Amino acid sequence: MKKILIVMLAVLMACSIFAACSKPAEEEPSVQPTVIAAETPQPAQTASATPDAVPTDISPTTGLEGNTAYKPVMVQIDNADAARPQTGISYADIVYETDVDGSDTRLTALYNDAVNGVDAPGELTVGPVRSSRYYHQWIQEEWDALYVHMGGPDQTSKDETDIWGSSSEHIKQRINGAGKHASNEGLFFPLKDGHSQSEYAAIDLMKALDIYDYEPQALQSFTFYPQQDYADQPEISEIGLYFFGNKTPLASYEYDSSSDKLLRSTRGKEHTDAATGGQLEVQNVIVQFVNDSAADDGPGSDRRIVDVKGSGDALFVIHGKLMKGTWERPTYDSATSYKLESGEEITLAPGNTWISMLPAGKDVAVTYADGTDETISGEAE
Q1: Which InterPro entries is this protein grouped with (predicted)?
Q2: How far apart are CA 350 and CA 46, in angstroms?
Q3: Distance CA 216, CA 3 (A)
Q4: How far apart are CA 274 and CA 196, in angstroms?
Q5: In a designed cystine with 61, which of 74, 93, 181, 252 is the match (CB 3.0 to 4.6 A)?
Q6: Are 131 and 152 in contact (CB under 8 A)?
Q7: Domains along the chain with CATH numbers
Q8: Are the C-beta atoms of residues 343 and 83 closer than 8 Å to each other?
Q9: Omega into 153 within 30° of 0, i.e. cis?
Q10: What is the pLDDT at residue 106?
Q11: How far, rounded to the nearest angstrom, does the alpha carbon of residue 138 sit from its chain's CA centroid?
Q12: pLDDT at 6 over 70
């Protein structure tokens, strides 16, 4: 009996040992979650596959974060040799450069972030403020900005060059310091001692902002996101824009890769801002080839007609990379589109932008980072 009991116990123990030994085989599927878990960095891959998320609090004029307000002031700034260095030009979000008389250019500067941002100063002096041309007013229409200038041609032999002609009808509010249509002239003051106000006028943009009495609605808006580095495009060392002849470029930009900025020079000298003392740094440069002709609007006139409507070739320098493309503005009440040769709309880098409206047929001299050179000449229709 005892023997039988011992044998039965032995059998029972053997069965339980066997069951214990065979248990891992039954639980083998439970190791599968470990394998799945090892492959689950899927969300991280999806996030990195999508470019940087588009910020929601960006400036409509620079694409920089921190200012969503849109109440721009556009100012006509002199760019004759005696006018440099200008005051406050480096604070402009967008600057258009146009031929004004066949030997000098004029700057049409749009200020939005500096006057509406959270860090806006108590005062911001800019100048010298000079006269408008009718085509500057068509540039103003793209942005619907409060417009600041010191007079301009108002009795010419051609209606199209009269700044009070059809080109003025869309302007909702302006500050004009000279001529029979002067308005708010008390906001101007002499910028330089010993010179008249009409020659070197300055204006405080924060005081100009105080009299704004409408809500601007821009035709134009630039694309900044998703950001593009255009890494497959050639990098430049310098470009020179020959507005007037081929001896010295009127404007040139040298690319500083350490700051990812284009450093501007004018007539071979560093172009600086009297307010900061520093050389002008530009994030994006657009060269827009336009039709440019003599106005012939009166005896002794050397004024120009710059056609900002139509289409033509364009060059873009973004992150130091040069791309070729086109521009088009079918009507004055439409925005200018800027596209690559592929037809894709250009994406600017967040920051300031200078647009040089270069006469068609004039040269742009390019020196690439690899030391090679190219001369580019564009056309316009």
Answers
A1: DUF3048_C, DUF3048_N, YerB-like_sf
A2: 25
A3: 106
A4: 19
A5: 93
A6: yes
A7: 73-210 (3.50.90.10), 236-377 (3.50.90.10)
A8: no
A9: no
A10: 98
A11: 18
A12: no
Residue carrying the six token digits 């894709």? 344
User: CA 329 to CA 57: how far, in whole Å?
Assistant: 29
By the 8 A CB rule, do 174 and 127 touch? no
Q: Show Cβ contacts of residue 90 under 8 Å, excluding neighbours closer than 6 positions.
A: 273, 275, 276, 278, 280, 281
- Using left for φ > 0, alpha for ψ between -120 and 50, and beta otherwise, residue 333 falls in alpha
Query: Which range among 161-170, 184-193, 243-252, 316-325 has the greatest average pLDDT?
Result: 316-325
Q: Per the structure block, which two tokens stand in for 276?
A: 């900061």
Closest CA to 136 of 154, 120, 122, 149: 149
DSSP 8-state code for residue 85: S
Cβ contact 102:152 at 8 Å? no
- Distance between CA atoms of 335 and 329, rounded to whole angstroms? 6
DSSP state at residue 144? T
pLDDT one-digit tens code per residue, 224-267: 999 999 999 999 999 999 999 878 899 999 999 999 999 999 99
Q: Choose among 194, 200, 203: nearest CA to 147.
A: 203
Angle at Cα 207 formed by Cα 205 and Cα 212, nearest 5°? 90
Phi (first) and psi of residue 139, to 5 degrees: -65, -40
Q: What is the pLDDT averaged over residues 326-348?
A: 98
Length of the chain counted residue by residue: 381
- Tell how strand 236-241 and strand 363-368 pair up: antiparallel
